[in-house]
Amino acid sequence: MAFNFKRIKFPGLEKVSFMSFPNDQKKFGVFGGVFTPNVLTILGIIMYLRLGWVVGNAGILGAIAIILIATSISFCTALSMSSITTNIKIGAGGAYSIISRSLGLEAGGSIGIPFYISLMLSAALYIMGFTEGWLRIFPDHSPMLVTYSAWAALLIISYISTHFAIRVQYMILVIVGISILSFLLTKNEPVSTAQLIGDFEDAGFWRVFAIFFPAVTGIMAGANMSGDLKDPRKAIPLGTLSAIGVTLLVYIVIAFVAFRYISPVELRENQMALVDNSRWGSMVIAGILAATFSSALGTMVGAPRVLQALAKQKTVPLHKIFVKKTSKAEPRNAIIFTGASIALALLVGNLDALASLITMFFLITYGMINVVVFIPQSMNMISFRPTLKIPRFVSFLGVVGSVAIMFLINPIFSLVAISTIIALYVWLGRRGLKSDLGDIRGGMFLALAERASLIASRFPRSQVSWKPDLLLPVEDPKSWSGSLLFIRNITHPSGSIFAFTVRKEIREETEHDLNELFEPIRNESTMVNSTVLEDKSFVNVAKLVIQTLHAGALRPNTLFLTMSRERRKHSTIKTLLKHSTKNGMGTLILRINPRLSFGMQKTINLWLRDKSPNWHMSMLIAFQLIRNWDGTLHLITSTPDKSEKKRLQNFLQHLSDQARLPSTTEFYVLIGDFKESMLNAPAADLNIFGIPEDPDFRFMRNAPEEINTSCLFVKDSGSENALI
User: Fold this and answer.
1) pLDDT bracket for residue 56 (50, 70, 90)
2) The dihedral sign for the CA sequence 200, 206, 207, 208
3) 290, 284 in Cβ contact below 8 A?
4) Contact criterion met (CB below 8 Å) for 651 and 637
5) pLDDT of 11 strictly over 60
6) Cα angle 79, 81, 87; round to 5
7) pLDDT tens digits along 299-353
8) How far apart are CA 31 and CA 230, in angstroms?
9) Backbone angles phi, psi at 472, to 5 degrees
10) What are the tens digits of pLDDT across the range 44-55?
11) What tens digit of pLDDT does each residue of 62-103 get?
């Protein structure tokens, strides 16, 4: 099963090495723990087999431009990653840990699962690359035998000794260094056909860029080893950034030597140009073998640790199996599963189709790392105090650059990758995952709400945007369940509720009862705030609440009260009614018929008085109720003068047309005085009346029994308009 590098395009060959090695007694410093693994992950197979092709197509200036643009994205991400690692302690899983601790388990899992799969498939690609290099030396060997021998050796090393895998990197670094030196000491003479700017004969600028870009990725090796570092806050930034600087210099120097000593034609047509034109070609081949082997080993060591971290938070199926570790903290079950999955991927032989998708997932991961830094920077969160501070434009460029490169490489695979992430996020969100560590999502949306409210406060409240935002003084949460469904039907789907109760002494039991009362409404995504206030006077507290909330941008606009048969409470209702009017709030007073409640919740009688200005809120609330009840509205008015019937009929019809009421609305003009008309009105499940300036509490108290329905009494605030 030969691996054809002329066909492979290399996107997705992310070289994440040595992800996390917990519980080893020896702690590593900057060089061994961060710099070396980072350098080995960056200087990989693309450097050996594709950098010459890039120079042959782009020329030296074009190649340097491609190298600098690609490195700038990795550099921004490295700065963001270095910054976040100096602010929080990175747990197992590397990028997954960073994202989940910042944006929640759903976001971390939706990135972490594809990230793990990409690591696993990348290991298969590295093993195939190793096979091709081996066959260059021993062409008579069986490709299948070489592939699975390499796979077995890698699996055994990763299964038995992670610490040994770390030590192997020093030997590999020496081999890679000698191979680079062998090419730089090329035996060739300078060529006369070298081009400053190439003709891009094989591919355009961005296609060449896309093929080269994976060469500069793989910068998370050090961050993923934070638990094994002597001083992570010092080692990760210094080791990561110095590794990027050194490898950038190496890429530019190799590109210049290739431009100076190898013809553009050979660079484009011979993928082994660096081997054939080096002083010791066998050392370059050894470097290819070492690079692919180290990348595969690092991935096979790191991918199981990502899987184990995902399993620890129950974000993957069979998490009880994958979460287990040995006494030496080795995730053996995850290692076996990852190794078996890689073996299956190797049977496919050609992973070209998946290579672009793999790259998309890595770029999304890098973009999210930048997002994790950009959000708290923008929110000025006091908890975000990294010892390495970076300008906000750096993380912003990291986000924009990652997304832009995704679509430059492959728009279709970009959309597939983003769709996959969204689907995983929705799936994980429905599982109700909970983290003991918390995240910044609540603060993020709160900050957005605060900024939105600040902007909203600059504009007067518009009648166009009116919605029912209720203020509910709750005397006894245990006795309010009868009104709850009615309140829901008024506020759903766009209203809000601010509820409070007053006690001489605040007790957890009362707070629990109040929260439990509104839990069903909260579960329907209606915004509900509730609190228990300590005072002896219910009325005084209610007045203070109205005054206090009046100053807010998200203030309630309607006071909702209930009326009982107790006459002693009329004075309280009258006081609150007066106070709500004074503070620009409308008022709803509900009087429930205890025997019939709201009947079948189908029909509403809305009573209108000719030339009365107090009907806008009544109509809006009635419309909201019939929409949620899927019911019918009756517009009713009365007059003792029969000659007025036609005019009033036209008035109701015109009003309905202007208010855009449903076509099923019915109109009634009743002849007689108001009380007589009330008894002759069509049957309904709710009657809605306006509240005059001087309320008749006796009528409001007795009306439900007299007409055998529950009644709602409404007073406009003046900020509603049913016709707008």
Assistant:
1) very high
2) positive
3) no
4) yes
5) no
6) 105
7) 787 778 788 878 887 777 777 787 777 666 677 788 888 888 888 888 876 655 5
8) 11
9) -115, 105
10) 878 888 899 999
11) 999 999 999 998 999 999 888 887 777 766 666 667 777 766
CB 148, CB 346: distance < 8 Å? yes
**277 or 165, which is more confident:** 277
Q: Measuring CA to CA, which residue among 555, 582, 560 is closest to residue 573?
A: 560
Output the furthest CA–CA distance in the chain (Å, rounded): 115
Residue 423, token pair as written in the block: 């689907």
Q: Give yes or no for a contact between 21 and 164, defined as CB atoms under 8 angstroms apart.
A: no
Contact between 228 and 22 under an 8 Å Cβ cutoff? The reply is yes
* Distance, CA of 723 to CA of 2 (rounded, Å): 75
Given a contact cutoff of 8 angstroms between Cβ atoms, the answer to whether 482 and 592 are in contact is: yes
What is the DSSP secondary-structure string of 561-605?
A: EE--S-GGGHHHHHHHHHHHHHTT-EEEEEE--TTTTTTTS-EEE
Asked if 223 contacts 93 with a C-beta cutoff of 8 angstroms, the reply is no
Does 693 have pLDDT greater than 80? yes
DSSP, collapsed to helix, strand or coil, labels residue 559 as: strand
Residues 6+ apart with CB under 8 A from 470: 487, 490, 491, 495, 496, 497, 498, 556, 558, 559, 560, 588
49 CB contacts (<8 Å, ≥6 apart)?
A: 5, 271, 272, 274, 288
Domains and CATH numbers, the chain: 30-430 (1.20.1740.10), 468-715 (3.40.50.12370)
Tell me if 398 sits within 8 A of 365, measured CB to CB: no
Q: Would you say 440 and 381 are in contact if contact means Cβ atoms under 8 Å apart?
A: yes
Please check whether residue 608 is in contact with residue 622, taking contact to mean a CB–CB distance below 8 angstroms.
Answer: no
Taking residue 535's Cβ as centre, other Cβ atoms within 10 Å add up to 14
Angle at 645 between CA 642 and CA 651, to 5 degrees: 155
DSSP symbol at 474: -
| Beta carbons of 556 and 470 less than 8 angstroms apart | yes
Partnered with residue 229 across adjacent β-strands are: 28
